[in-house]
Structures are given as structure tokens and as C-alpha cells.
Amino acid sequence: MTAQLNPRGDVAVLVPAAGAGVRLGPGRPKALRLLAGEPLLVHAVRRLAEARSVHTIVVAAPVAEVDAVRELLAPVAPVSVVPGGAERQASVAAALAAVPAGPEIILVHDAARALTPPSLVEAVAAAVRAGRPAVIPVLPVVDTIKEVDAGEVVLGTVDRSALRAVQTPQGFLRSVLTSAHTAAGDPLTDDAGLVEKQGVPVSCVSGSEYALKITRPFDLALAEHLLASGG
């Protein structure tokens, strides 16, 4: 039986958490690396559970860690844990298959974005609820962007006014995400990319600086600082 958080909620959140996290250096799978003494996954799930719209959370864990992750999250929130896949896309599909009947809004959220505030979860869900079939949180690109060739020679400067950095959670109507995964071919880095390939319009909402993705040791140090300063 799939665990439930808020019986009145209309949102299921899928958390692909089976990745190795090579860029963080050697150690446990990325979602289980410690941030301020707790695994990234614990921080992420705790914040998801605080969002009132969330009915169900399904975590796709490393195959060898399913029981350990289930035990780890039991004190945090009612969460269902399923074995993840070798690629992110397979982990999302496995989690999606475990969502019970009921929630028609599906969010996909990276465990590595451990400090994402519940308000962003609600903002994405609200946009889908308002009639947008696919929604992503974004931030403006602030750095100057150069296009370069194979030899690292600059070809030109890209107009950044139309560029956005994409975060999670990404939100979808259940039927839209299910169809996109059914038709999926080569793995893509995010679910919005799968939906785009189906010709479904993807809308944007404002993201959050706290939804940074913890990928490198510097990101982990920055997240530690944010937590220490009350973030």
C-alpha cells in the first residue's frame, strides 16, 4: 500500500534518488550524502512533506539501499520507496508506476535540491492546477554565455535574455507525464524535455535561490552555509 501524507492533497511527488553523485567525490550515493549531519534525501523529503498539497511521495532509491532508505525516511514522513534504475529516467518511471489512483498532478523533484522551500512546491502545483499541462521553475541566467567550438574558441556571445536555468520540482498533469515516459527514447536530463518532445507546451514559474542543485563539494559547502544562517 502506498503511503499517504495529506488525504485531501492532489499532488504526488516522485523523487529519483538512485544516482551515484560522482562529481561530489567518492562515497555513498548522492542522495545519502550528509548535509549538516543528515542525508540530502532527508532534507528534501522533509520540505516536500511540509507542502499541504502533497498527498504522496515516492522515492526511487538505489537498488541495494531500498530497505535502508525506507528505514531512514520512516521518522520523517510517510513515504513509499521503490528500486530505482540505472538512469534517472528509469527511476522516474519506476516511481511513477507506484503512484496510487487519485493524484492527477505529478511533480518530479531532485533529491539533490535538498533546500527547496515548500512554497515552490505549492507554486508549481498551483500552476498545473490552473490548467498548465507542464510547469518548470526557472531563474534568469545572470552570467555572460559564450558559444565555443571543439577547440574552445569563442564563436559568439549568446543573448541571455531568453535563457533560463531550470530547477525542480517540475510539475505535470499525470496523463501528460505518463504519455511522455511511455514514448520516451534516449534518456534526457529532465522530464520537461520528454514532454517537449511530445509537443506539449511547458510553462515557467519563478524558481528559488534555495533550490540550488548540490552537485559539487562547493555546492554542499554553500548549502551548509545557508542552513547555518537560517535558510
Automatic annotation (TrEMBL):
The keyword Nucleotidyltransferase applies. The record marks R23, K30 as: Transition state stabilizer. It is an enzyme of class 2 (transferase). GO terms for biological process: isopentenyl diphosphate biosynthetic process, methylerythritol 4-phosphate pathway. One of its GO terms (molecular function) is 2-C-methyl-D-erythritol 4-phosphate cytidylyltransferase activity. Coiled coil: none annotated. Pfam families: IspD (PF01128). InterPro entries: IspD, IspD/TarI, IspD/TarI_cytidylyltransf_bact, ISPD_synthase_CS, Nucleotide-diphossugar_trans. The record marks R160, K213 as: Positions MEP for the nucleophilic attack. Its EC number is 2.7.7.60. Pathway: Isoprenoid biosynthesis; isopentenyl diphosphate biosynthesis via DXP pathway; isopentenyl diphosphate from 1-deoxy-D-xylulose 5-phosphate: step 2/6. It catalyses: 2-C-methyl-D-erythritol 4-phosphate + CTP + H(+) = 4-CDP-2-C-methyl-D-erythritol + diphosphate. Keywords: Isoprene biosynthesis, Nucleotidyltransferase, Transferase. Belongs to the IspD/TarI cytidylyltransferase family. IspD subfamily. Catalyzes the formation of 4-diphosphocytidyl-2-C-methyl-D-erythritol from CTP and 2-C-methyl-D-erythritol 4-phosphate (MEP). This is 2-C-methyl-D-erythritol 4-phosphate cytidylyltransferase. The lineage of its organism: Bacteria, Bacillati, Actinomycetota, Actinomycetes, Micromonosporales. The gene is ispD.
